[in-house]
Please model this.
Amino acid sequence: MSHRLLLPLVGIAAAAWLVAAPSRAQVTTVEGASVQFFPLVAADAGRDTLIQLANGSPQRIFVRCVYTPGGLGGQNAAVDFHLVLDKFQPTHWLASTGREVNPDDEPCDREMPACDGAGLDPGRIPPLPEDFAGDLICIQVDRSDAPVSGNALRGVATLVDTASGDIAKYPSVGLRGAPVNDADETLCLGGEASAECPRGAEYAGCPLSWSLLHRAEGGAPDRLQAHTKLVIATCSRRAGTGAGVAQILIFNEFEQRLSTSFSVQRWTEVALADNPIFDRDVHGSDFLQTRLRPSAASPGFVVIGFTSLASSDGAETGGSAGAVPHMQGVAPGDRIVLADE
Amino acid sequence: MARQWGFIIGLCGALLAAAVPTAAQITSEPAALLIFPRVLLDTGTGVDTVVQLANTSDQAVEVRCVYEDDAPTCNGTGSCFPDASSCQGVCELQWSVFTSRLRLTPNQPLGWSVARGLSDPPLDGVDLLGPVGSSNAGTAVPAVSSPFDGSMRCFAVDDRGRPIERNVLIGTASIETDADAEPPGSGGPAIDAARYDAIGLQAIEGSNDSDEVLRLGGLQPEYTACPTTLVLPHVFDGAQTQTGAITSRVWTTLALVPCSGDLLSDSPPTGLVQLLVRNEFGQRFSTSRSFQGSLALPISLFDTTDQSRSILSVGVGGTLTGQTSIEDVGDGVVGVAFETRQPLVFPGAAIAGGAAAPQYRAAYPLGAEGVRVDPAVLAELRPPCHGDCNGDGQVFMNELILGVTIGLGSAPVGVCFAADGDENGAVRIDEVLRAVLIAQTACPARKVPTVPVEPQPTPRPTPTPPTAVGPDITFLGIASADDVAQAPVETDAEGRDVFEWPAGQGFSLIVEARPGFERGQVGRQATAPGGATLPDLQVILSNAIGDGSTALCDTEPPTAGGVPATEPFEFSDAPEVIRAINDLGCRADDGRGLTQGRQVPAEACTRMRPSGEIAAAGQGSTVQFCIPIARAWALPEGETRVAARVRSVSGEVGPAREIVVRVLP
Model:
């Protein structure tokens, strides 16, 4: 193992805020939830996304979903649709094609293993416009289309490389709802009672910090090289400017830490290779722990990481893998506004 | 060092839900116990696993990791790995355990490949130290030999190797392929990775007794419980998906590892999982599978050796995707799923499936539901033994030499805390001599793992005999929007149960009934045709709900409305009462959109806590009606009286029952 020491530390940030153990995060990737974030849904030249959404409840449920393109201009181009899922019903759709309601779809059988539309269609799911990269939020609502804390939704997304067939999967990030939900169009994620949220938190707050374990960019000369990308989306929607700052602390195997920050214009996709602070040559270390949290004035974030591998000469690539970083703490409070009231 | 696994240790009976902590189970947060459900090494196919483990705290932490290998071996010629097809003989389970020890400095990430191990940690304590003199001294993860197919568990321990309550560990594993084969159509060697996060179980503050037996859940738990049910979203095996111009065949491998186990016993644990498969039509299929050790199989091999006939194959499942619930009848399991796609058709060139085609895998976590009320017990450690540096229950010459080396000041005490019997940070000659004596005799015997005696569950009261001809109401109350039946907060002066809810919507009204003494079946219709006559379920309200609209069955947006009050508040054949009863009945839902009651317990809309088990709320119920209360028909603030009665299929109406639902301001 290389013992190259770190270059002069780039601003040893005051890390106590990140390290001090905050209170329990209430976000889940394993339990059912009332709000599910899919931070990256892509249907562009090189990628497509299979979304799987399921009802984990013995009750029929209703769902309102919103695709939002990345970037500040996204809110005007959001695509909404509604779903109905019978008790324990799973469903799926491909982001580029959506899913039509077609009662004549034939069920799969041994002679017809390609049967994309088979099953109860949950409602019309529109195809995404070309070159879409952004996120998807699905919110459980009641039969009259008002938000409800049913905690019945589970999701998983599969990013498919449309050139090679390589895949990366990640679970959606769920916020569990609380009984105090007032069912209005403003979803209060964490935080104290306020004029906007007179009952306080209706849903779990977004995590305060996210910790991703990953390899340093580059890699040892004789081994596979790893490249990691972060997708960061703000938790708040249609509230405020949508801009935020993600503060980053990077710990290496030598117990050294570096810091940096990313500007997040509601949604961003960051290749760590674009910032030398993540390089193996800078750290002399193969493995890193990167922690991300919103700055004081920022909305909370939802984060996922994607790693891909390349041969040591960089000629061949593959091995995409998705991961939701580990979470800690609760951000001060975010809002999702479904519609202007 | 190799050890044999053991049978699952002590089980306890079912517990009352109320007696069990309802802490969340598996977590994405830092934890004291991490489980990596699948670790794989196969040099023949270029597969290795890269493990990453990190300390999230400002203080160093000791970690003990145990690899558990159950790759089968062929008792004849050939190999059983990765599959048994080349074995000219019988594939036999070989269960072996490797223990390793790590020391993570503050906030430090460490990583290693299973094939290479970690023998040269970054901060070796000699040439390199951390900023405050910390080091990885004593860290040694052995390389394992190929093939290896098993799992790994890591525990936060103190510097003596005793489990401690420090929820500071996070971990990931990446199963990576770097094969030399040229996959057709891709123009390059196959590189692949499937990454998953270790499953974390948090230590419960103030409960760890630091012995070698770890109690997960149950009474006096040291760690949070394993989930009752795992939930696997999946594509049915053998399905073909088309993405862009690529058509791929898809299958899913499910890796499970028991929560309980005696890592120092001679026999592997056994398990029996029940799988309940649901497709996109809402149809259900079930099967079960027993196993020894851990289990990692394509899901279509769980119930048959002919994958095309499996209920988890696309040909039988009937839809592209499904949702499968996995429940262990023993002490619980945890696991991870791997989806594999094999492109069959690339742009411009069709290739046949099979070994030549590249395969791309991706890992993803299983969902979890409920908290197990019976404990799982994991016995992993030996009792402290003076001089036994590696914790294998024996003291060997190399360990005596290590003790002497520490005593001479040539090595830090951290390389063998067991040599420092009085824990004063140094090794004296009498401590070395004591280790010599133990080397000639034996370490203390293991404590037999036991679990606290659990109280017998209080038997559920025997239902009293029916008192009327028509159906008896066995439960009238509310359930939360996430399906948990609520207990009344009080009984009012009229003897009515009072239920409270913080909002006028976001819960369900639940009515359950059983046959009266006529023993006629309980009717299930919540509405009558056209709303002109009384249905089997008859519910009246003292207050209008929603906008009190008199429109019948106005349940769908944008015109969804409410239900008028019944005044006077009594059942009658008056047209407006019949209409209001039907209007409310239109809101009942059997889970498929039909306004009818459900057969219970199998079809219940309510769950038990903390187990998450689907069950009726009342005793002896045969039919349950579930009426979700949406915002458009929310109850007003204050108290609303709700009265219900149910009719049998033969037309006998049972006695009415009444409750109060209090909506808080």
In short: Residues 429-440 of chain B form the longest helix (12 residues). Residues 472-663 of chain B form one domain. Chain B touches chain A through 126 residues (CB under 8 Å). The first strand of chain B starts at residue 33 and ends at 41.
